Amino acid sequence: MPSPSTPSTPSITCSSLGFGWADGTPVLADFDLAVGPGRTGLVGRNGSGKSTLLRLMAG
Fold first, then answer.
1. I need a surface site. Which of 11, 17, 22, 38 has the fewest CB within 10 A?
2. Residue 28 within a domain
3. Which residues, including other chains, have CB under 8 Å from residue 33's CB and lie 6 or more apart?
4. 39 Cβ partners below 8 Å, 6+ apart?
5. Residue 18's closest CA among 4, 35, 32?
6. Domain range spanning residue 15?
């Protein structure tokens, strides 16, 4: 396993992201994310909002 490197400037950031479905069901509220360069995984249970988050980030 490689040794940890010095933290760098994030490649992707989201600040105070929020989203809810048309019926009022909240999905994300005041969500912050900073992802640095390299490999990153996004894991979670089915229906937890992984694809929704990526779609929001993609625009």
1. 22
2. yes
3. 12, 13, 14, 17
4. none
5. 32
6. 9-37+46-52
Determine, yes or no, domain membership for 1. Answer: no
Residue with tokens 């912050």: 32
Which secondary structure element, helix H or strand E, spans residue 54, and what is its range? helix 50-58
Point out which residues pair with 34 in neighbouring strands. 13
Examine residue 57 and state whether it is found in any structural domain, yes or no.
no
Residues in the chain: 59
First and final CA of the chain: distance in angstroms? 35
- Interval 6-59: pLDDT, tens: 667 878 899 999 999 999 999 889 999 998 888 889 999 998 889 989 999 898
